[in-house]
Amino acid sequence: MTQPTTDVIAIGNAIVDVMAPCDDALIETLGLARGGMTLIDAQQATDLYAAMGPAREISGGSAANTLAGMAQLGATCAFIGQVANDQLGEVFAHDIRAGGISFATPMREGHPPTARCLIFVTPDGQRTMNTFLGASQFLPAEQLDEKAIADAQVLLLEGYLWDPEEPRRAMRRAIAAAKNAGRKVAFTLSAVFVIARHREDFLAMIEEGLIDILFANEEELAALTGLDDFDAGFETVAAKVPTVVVTRGADGAHARREGENAYVPAQPIARVVDTTGAGDLFAAGFLFGFVRGRALEDCLTLGAICAAEVISHFGARPEVDLKTLVAQVMA
Questions:
Q1: Which is nearest to 129 in space by CA: 216, 43, 32?
Q2: What's the whole-number mean pLDDT along residues 205-218?
Q3: pTM for this structure?
């Protein structure tokens, strides 16, 4: 097995986040699923955008957010995802490359347009996401750079992208390429609705030993295992996956790696402004520690630091240099 030249390569939705603060009354008026993520069509995207107040456009997507954090920490990263040849596609491509992340997937011509996520943020920092997947759900397996996958220490797969059929085929092919090269596969469960649709797929991949690192929050863990008791659910998954990481919001995070357990509390923060990207940045910190061979507790601490930074402001990308922040907190 050759030495990897990239720390992490990720496959995920290539999305531009459109974020705006709002009051609770607007969430109710629009009939949105408060605090959740709902898939919407092109007309709904147009209608919700019209209902938004002044907004900010920030490149997003779960796996892309994770890579943005990792790149800031000093990791070498690459991203595979589909955008359209349009204005938001150019925005996404510019932003991810400007963050030092390799991105070579060709733009898709014609409709649908580049994906966007309309995010309404209430005063308590809770985000209500409404996602139009657009071009991102048309990533063909033929667009994969299998050599780049084989050259990465870890392949990170975004659960959200398992939902559409075409990228699901691409991700299965990517798993095979990574495994053939002796690399690790990390998988994020992403959301309860994704698990509801594809639970049997995910359980089968776990049984087959295709997932080496699994990221979940406690609600996703319960949906995957069918167990409401956290400890029982954690034990069930940890018995079959080499590394399991489960976040519990303000109650911290748990992990098990090859029989070793670790727990860290959430990092203190003056005020939660926006929880968008908290899980993504937690994964960034954890994976950075993982590829650098850090102790399990250190990996969790790195994740907690990154998550605390991103929830202290609007947007799912870091605004403070994470390398400097980690050095200060872990000194």
A1: 32
A2: 97
A3: 0.89
